[in-house]
């Protein structure tokens, strides 16, 4: 658990989006072991387009996209 | 289509000349068989709202509404900057044809794939 009481494997980003969300998401995923699953809750209207693009660029895998909930598998390394 | 082309558009009625020329260039790129995307940012996001561009018609050019409709009908993509759109409290349920709200990662991906770009 982090100080906000959320598990390391999930994050409710609220209406955060664009670069602010992506940078924070990268930092959170980097703290997880390879292949770990991470649940993101994000309501920004740009996220359904942004997250798949970000996963394609970075090598993480988007396992499920059901806005506002997204499940990401951390890349192997 | 061979190659990608991005037109970044940050103007709307605050400079309707530039707003129009951006879509003229975008249509030229699409007609040149480039996979073309118009990225609307800052004031430019207003162009993504249905009805906004209806009264923009610069002398010497086709009406902007027609330029945008032709662009979308030919397969052009319009990406709309999400934070720019939100801060202006626009309506995401009333987007023009071809428009999609995106964040920065989608733009970065498009440009990183070797797209040429021009900005207004």
Summarize the structure.
The complex is a heterodimer of chains A (77) and B (120). With 77 residues, chain A is of the alpha+beta class. Helices cover 32% and strands 29% of the residues of chain A.
Short descriptors:
heterodimer; A: 77 residues; alpha+beta; Translation Initiation Factor IF3; 4-stranded mixed β-sheet; 2 helices; B: 120 residues; alpha/beta; Hypothetical Protein Ychn, Chain: A; 5-stranded parallel β-sheet; 5 strands; 34% helix
Describe the protein.
The complex is a heterodimer of chains A (77) and B (120). By secondary structure, chain A is of the alpha+beta class. Chain A has one domain (10-73): TusA-like domain (Translation Initiation Factor IF3, 2-Layer Sandwich), CATH 3.30.110.40. Chain A has helices at 18-30, 47-58; strands spanning 10-14, 37-42, 61-66, 69-73. A four-stranded mixed beta sheet of chain A has the order 1-2-4-3, with helices on one face. Chain B is of the alpha/beta class and 120 residues long. Chain B has a single domain (4-119), classed as DsrEFH-like (Hypothetical Protein Ychn, Chain: A). Chain B has helices at residues 16-31, 64-73, 82-87, 104-112, and strands spanning 4-9, 35-40, 77-81, 99-102, 116-119. The longest helix of chain B is centred in the N-terminal third of the chain and has 16 residues, at 16-31. The model of chain B has no long low-confidence stretch (mean pLDDT 95).
